[in-house]
Amino acid sequence: MRKTFLRLGGLMAMLAVAFGAFGSHGLKSAIAPDSLSTFEIGVRYQFYHAIGLIATGLLLYWRKNKLLVFTGWLFLTGILLFSGSLYLLSMSELFSLNTAVLGPITPLGGVAFIAGWICFIFATFQKNEKSYRRKSSGEE
């Protein structure tokens, strides 16, 4: 799982940079300023949680427990629901999207982010279920 979260974190960070550039250059004149602000919030939270995914992947090199794995999936779920819904909400005027469906999705993504951070914190108190550390021959 550690490599999965490192890869997903890198992918989400790369996409956050691409979406940020798209928002700054491609959407600036196409959508209203308040919609652009909403889009930028989605980018910001995607980037924060991409870093959280990377941190989770790195921590899994030293600690392995189910809460850390759950943390990674909650961060990814939050990115998809929270940031994804904000992207769609902000561009709804361009694509004539029904925002009534999207509105309730955003808070669910926020809850996933919060739950992910709670799991991250509690995971640091748990014992390892399996250690990834390698012992050198002859060392204890």
Secondary structure elements and their pairing?
Blueprint: H1 2-27, H2 33-59, H3 66-90, H4 92-95, H5 99-102, H6 105-123
Give the structure's gist in a few sentences:
The protein has helices at 2-27, 33-59, 66-90, 92-95, 99-102, 105-123. The protein has 6 helices and no strands.
What keyword list fits this structure?
140 residues, 6 helices, mainly alpha
Would you write up a description of this structure?
- This protein is mostly helical.
- The protein has one domain (about 1-125).
- The protein has six helices and no strands.
- The protein has helices spanning about 1-25, 35-60, 65-90, 90-95, 100, 105-125.
- Helix 1 (about 1-25) packs parallel to helix 3 (about 65-90) and helix 3 (about 65-90) packs antiparallel against helix 6.
- It is elongated and about 50 Å long.
- The two termini are about 25 Å apart.
- The model has no long low-confidence stretch (mean pLDDT about 90).
